[in-house]
Amino acid sequence: MFKGRPPKPEKSEARNRPNREKTRLTKTVAITELHPAPELMNEYGQQEWDRLMRNVSNLIHPQDLGLLEMACRAYGVYTAIEVEMLTAGRFFTNEKGETVLTAAARESKRQLEVYQKIVIQFGVTPLSRVKVAIPKKQDEEKSDPMEKLLSML
Question: What angle do CA 57, 59, 64 make, to 5 degrees?
Fold first, then answer.
């Protein structure tokens, strides 16, 4: 009547099944040249674009450039607002006599949060660098522990 559970396939059989293969749907290649900053970005954003492109160009792919642009735009807006607030001030007194943040200060904070959320994905912050798999240079060789011992003699 009931035969029970079918036997598990051997490891070699499991590897040969095409529906079990882990394949990437799209093959991506990291960008090889530094792209210039988009023209619509302000000067602060363009400077940040140049800095980030030098630091993360080996990690990002062409489809990541839009996300990087959003981060740099947010940084540019944040910096421009901060410069403006140096003269205009960060707080004002409302009709009730309370000291509150200006609209520019709230927008500055929001742009900084957007920037931080995006750059974490690129491994720019110290903690996120640990999480991002940074490709190793091909020149580096794995050190053999036996060679270390022999060199000490």
Answer: 80
